[in-house]
Amino acid sequence: MENRSEHLLLTSGFSDYGTGKALLLACSLAIPQWAMAQDSGDSDKPAPVQVIAPEVKPRSIQEADIDAEFFEVGVFAGIMSIDNFSSEPLLGVSAAFHATEDFFLQFNYGFTEAGLTSFEELSGNNVRLLNDSDRDFSYYDFLVGYNIFPGEVFFSDSLTFNSAFYLVGGVGNTEFGGESNFTTTLGTGFRVVLLDWLTVHVDFRDHMFTSDLIRESQLTHNIELSSGFTLFF
Predict the structure, then answer these.
(1) Which of 32, 101, 135, 157 has its CB 3.0 to 4.6 Å from that of 114, i.e. a possible disulfide?
(2) Closest CA to 199 of 231, 226, 227, 166
(3) CA 65 distance to own-chain centroid
(4) pLDDT (tens digit, 9 = 90+) per residue, 97-120?
């Protein structure tokens, strides 16, 4: 009886040992297959894209700014087309105060001498509407300006200048033909800052006043086209 029991126990132990050994063998064979499957699955994923940062070198620009001062004075020259008369050379002086970055106040004084009217030219030397002293044309005005298009002007890759397109308007007085006339002035201009203390201007103005020289109560338009330099201080 004991021999039979021992035989059953030995047989059962041997069976359990064989089963464990078979399980270990199966696991050892399955693990490499699972690892290879994982590697194969990972290899199907796209490789990460490497982002290459462009090498951008900043460009060095020398830029002329308006100086810290608010006042500017200057001179200008151009052409004045006097209504009913000829177009003549014009000279003048100007001064301005920059109240803010956009608004400025300006004073101008200009003078020229009117030529002959078309009627005087056709009549030869027989008719003169004005004597020589009355042909002196001078004006002064007080204007308010507004910079509507501030910007920059590029002359090269490394040289640029600040600029502004502006509108002006105001009132003043014109002496011409022995008359003193209240004058309304409207115009535009373009400014380029060459240095922090030097600017160049190009201006277009219309000086409007009522005159009785040619006919009674005639509104005249006297067109000015001029250019000049101003200094900041």
Answers:
(1) 135
(2) 231
(3) 13
(4) 999 989 999 999 999 999 887 777
Please enumerate in sequence order all residues whose Cβ is within 8 A of that of 135, keeping only pairs 6 or more positions apart, or say none.
113, 114, 115, 177
- Do the domain assignments include residue 53? no
In the chain, the amino acid numbered 92 is G
Q: Label residue 6 by pLDDT band (50, 70, 90).
A: very low
Query: Is the residue at 221 inside a domain?
Result: yes
What is residue 33's three-state secondary structure? helix
Split into its structural domains, the chain has a count of: 2
Contact status, residue 219 vs residue 207, Cβ threshold 8 Å: no
CB contact at 8 A, 169 and 178: no
The radius of gyration of the chain from alpha carbons, rounded to an integer in Å, stands at: 46
Residue 75 belongs to some domain of the structure = yes
Query: CA 199, CA 72: separation in Å to the nearest integer?
Result: 9
Do 16 and 127 lie in one domain? The reply is no
**Residues 163 and 193: beta-carbon distance below 8 Å:** yes
Residues 16 and 93 in one domain: no
- Classified as helix, coil or strand, 22 is helix
* Tens-digit pLDDT profile for residues 140-198: 999 999 999 888 888 777 788 889 999 999 999 999 988 899 999 999 999 999 988 89
In a domain, residue 57? The reply is no
Q: Which residue has the tokens 């109560």?
A: 217
pTM over 0.90: no
The range of the structural domain enclosing residue 88 comes to 63-232
Do both 1 and 94 map to the same domain? no
